[in-house]
Design brief:
The chain contains eleven helices and eight strands. By secondary structure, it is α/β, with parallel strands linked by helices. The protein is globular, with a radius of gyration of 20 Å. The model has no long low-confidence stretch (mean pLDDT 97). The chain binds the ligand C=CC1=C(C)c2cc3[nH]c(cc4nc(cc5[nH]c(cc1n2)c(C)c5CCC(=O)O)C(CCC(=O)O)=C4C)c(C)c3C=C and fe (ii) ion (2 copies). It is found in: Cytoplasm.
């Protein structure tokens, strides 16, 4: 019997308007994987307080990057390219906090006669706050409608890591004059202490990439890992990127955003504008930010390898 296969990309979503930022923040802070308060009523109360206090200041950041996240358009480009290049699959995208939501996409997939799916969360390293949250949300609506294969992590995939190395190499011909900082989205320390494998996998990922660069004879002055985007008063993973930049007064840095697959407000606003300003205040020399793998041809080839 012929099966109709689909590749389903999962990601977080982002804001394309102030209203959508409210939707994003409301859904995010009502997510038990993000705000780990057990009582749904109390979580909802805290969520609405956070949304109220954060919405206006967060929107100002989006206004500085053209009043929308680039995440959706870039994901659409990736989906289109996969639909042209990935034979035997129809590709769909599902977002966790903004449309297209799982319930609607699943309906569409049923109408399209899909019965066999491969789910690829666009998070190279596993976190309860991202991968688990997206998978739980998808499974809530998919029940056992499809034969399902899940790719939980892909930070060890060589073709994927070659895309990252290529982008880093494209930034400079003189790596010895630069310090490479892998920047990962942060997490509250208590989530890691409760068993989240993200930090461990992030360390492994940096080690894999450092070895690949070394093998290719690309020697940066230093390679390090730091965490960006802290939200709220809790202790988050360290070192923070702000603190890490203090070590590089009068030195050059290249930042690679290691937790993301497509560029978003955390790369375009935080890394390219906010942390750049911090770097200037510290007196960092050259400050370069790498692009995410986005819809690059090499990443399309990597996806073929990851799902095979
Ligand atoms: C407790 C809060 C948060 C956790 C934990 C968290 C983990 C986490 N997030 C990403 C990826 C992205 N986050 C983005 C935006 C964003 N994240 C948080 C909070 C937490 N994230 C907030 C409040 C926001 C909104 C912006 C802001 O107010 O600062 C985005 C960008 C979306 C966009 O619009 O472009 C991404 C992508 C990862 C990978 C992660 C854990 C590993
Ligand atoms: Fe986040
Ligand atoms: Fe942020």
């Amino acid at each position: 019997m012929k099966t109709n296969k689909a590749l389903v990309l999962l990601n977080m979503g982002g804001a394309r308007s102030k209203d959508e930022l409210k939707t994003f923040l409301t859904n995010m802070f009502n997510d038990r994987n993000i705000l780990t308060i057990k009582c749904g009523f109390f979580r909802g109360l805290v969520a609405s307080m956070i949304v109220k206090s954060r919405l206006n200041s967060a929107w100002k950041n989006y206004e500085e990057i053209g009043s929308e996240t680039p995440l959706h358009k870039l994901t659409e480009k990736l989906v289109d390219k996969l639909n042209t290049n990935l034979k035997g699959y129809k590709t769909y995208q599902v977002m966790r906090y903004t449309p297209p939501f799982a319930s609607d996409v699943i309906k569409q997939m049923e109408e399209d006669g899909i019965d066999d799916i491969t789910i690829l969360p666009l998070y190279p390293q596993y976190s309860t706050t991202t991968t688990k949250s997206s998978l739980e949300d998808f499974e809530l609506y998919s029940d056992d409608k499809f034969t399902t294969k899940i790719i939980k992590t892909f930070y060890k995939n060589e073709k994927f890591n070659n895309c990252i190395v290529d982008e880093i190499m494209s930034q400079t011909d003189t790596p010895q004059e630069y310090n490479l900082i892998f920047s990962a989205h942060g997490l509250p320390q208590k989530i890691v202490d409760a068993g989240d494998p993200y930090e461990k996998q992030m360390n492994e990922h940096v080690e894999i990439l450092s070895n690949m660069l070394k093998k290719k004879g690309i020697n940066f002055n230093s390679i390090s890992l730091a965490y960006q985007s802290k939200v709220g008063p809790l202790k988050w993973l360290e070192p923070s990127l702000d603190d890490a930049l203090l070590d590089f007064k009068d030195k050059n840095v290249i930042i690679y955003p290691l937790a993301f697959i497509v560029d978003n407000s955390e790369t375009d606003f935080e890394l390219n504008l906010e942390y750049r300003e911090i770097a200037e205040e510290i007196g960092v020399g050259d400050y370069k930010v790498c692009k995410c793998v986005n819809d690059s041809d090499l990443f399309i080839e990597a996806i073929k390898d990851i799902i095979k």
